[in-house]
Amino acid sequence: MKLKLFFSLFTLLFININAQDYIFGKIVTEDNAEIPDVTVINIRTDERSTTNRDGHFMISGRVGDELRFVKTGYERANKKITKENITSPINVTLTRSAILIAEVEIKKGVTGDIKVDSKNLNPSKKVQKLKSDLAVYMSQKSDPGVLAARAGEFVQPVTKGVFSLGKIKNKWDDIDFMSYLQTALGDKFFEDLKIDKSQIQHFILYIFRSGFERKFILKYGYCNDSDLNRFKNAVLNRISLYKTP
Question: 200-227 burial, b if ≥16 CB within 10 A, otherwise e?
Answer without folding.
Answer: bbbbbbbbbeeebebeebbeeeebeeeb
